[in-house]
Amino acid sequence: MSNDQLAGITQLGNQATQYPTDYAPHILETFQNKHPDNDYFVKFNCPEFTSLCPITGQPDFASIYIAYVPNIKMVESKSLKLYLFSFRNHGDFHEDCINIIMKDLIHLMDPKYIEVWGKFTPRGGISIDPYANYGQKNTPWENIACNRLANHDLYPEKIDNR
Description:
6 strands; two-stranded antiparallel sheet; 162 residues
């Protein structure tokens, strides 16, 4: 990557990483998409996501899946890791966490398309798996988002015991 493409990236390669103690969207960083003329998916899997129940303060655990079609900017992966870590002491319901993550990434990158899916481990005998997505308005991605939302879980997984 050229110096222009690396401008603003401070976490990658930093040996003195500071882990945030609460929700920290300001830690997210971007770099320029080198292939803005191609539509392609970038997918992140975070199998060790944690947040807190806003009522009981008990920990909630999840696998978070983020997939997006970049536009001009892309999220830098170490900053994303630190951002997701920042939810560790943050109290919000599962659905809120997923929507907050999606909206923060939309604000950061303005992707053509993005989806965020949280698969939370059961508490009290029930798991919650919120899914949110977005496609840029007035583009084909807006229709794709609508279709994927309607069909995102046509083939649900067999849940044994996360």
